[in-house]
Amino acid sequence: MNIQNVVMLGMQMQSLGFGDASGLLLRRICFNPDNFYLPQTIVKDGGQLLFALYFEKQGMEGQYSLQYYDVTLQKDNAISALRSGNTDLTELEKQMSAIEWQKAFDLDSVKPFDAEDKSTWETEAKVASVTNSLRLLEKNEQTKAFANYLKFKHWTGSFYQQLFTSIVPAKSKFDISQRFYFSESGNTITVDEAYRFLQNKWVERQIRQKKKLPDDASQTEMENGKASSNRGLLQKRRVNHSGKRKLRKANTEL
Q: Which of 172, 183, 213, 248 has the most CB atoms in a 10 Å sphere around its CB?
């Protein structure tokens, strides 16, 4: 294990605006994975930034480097807005907040179990209830992003990621997400720069919603469709004009 590599990555993260994450990096690198994600959460005015930094082993020496990070800006009122039809997710949020997920995902610790004593398996019953609720949300396309939001908020940083995989937040209308890559030339996007970028996108979305304008992707599709329609109309007019000219010429010859 290359300790200097850990030190270098820790310094890089601090220069980007994260705290001292050397210990977290060390605990992942010591397992010698080919790649891994490191979650980070930073609270900003009116919301929080959820980061998932992706590290990958590079070269013959097997040193790790930061390839990119996914970041999501979530506003303080996001949870209160998470409602779909008659489904109120505030109660599910409370249930998940009441569970110590770091312990819940620790599958190796020994604890007493007595089928007759509910207190010995009360936490597991709560986990089962929550996961069933999340599974139901994931079956519906309209609420799948909500389930992902809750998992990302409560399970990021827990042993879940060692058991399963990294949790990348799904795109929804309640947050703004972006991926920033890191090049060999050293170009980097700091936490503050990422926040300003996402905050601007958030403001732009609010303005579009007030004016009832579509998002950028929808706007592009509409413009492309309109351009295609205009091209078709132009071609049709050219055909009509050409046909009329031929008809006038034939009449003249007669």
A: 172
Beta-strand relationship, 35-44 and 63-75: unpaired
According to DSSP, residue 215 is labeled P
57: phi then psi, degrees, rounded to nearest 5: -75, 135
Render pLDDT for 75-101 as a digit per residue (tens, 0 to 9): 765 545 555 444 567 788 888 888 888
Q: How far apart are CA 129 and CA 139, in angstroms?
A: 16
Sequence-distant (6+) residues with CB within 8 A of 215 are 205, 208
d(CA 182, CA 14): 15
Question: Distance (Å, rounded) from C-alpha 111 to C-alpha 144?
Answer: 34
- Give the separation between CA 111 and CA 184, rounded to whole angstroms: 48
Q: Burial of 123 by CB count in 10 Å (0-12 exposed, 13-18 middle, 19+ buried)?
A: middle
Distance in angstroms (rounded) separating the CA atoms of residues 175 and 52: 15
CA dihedral 113, 119, 121, 127 (to 10 degrees): -160
At residue 64, the pLDDT reads 95
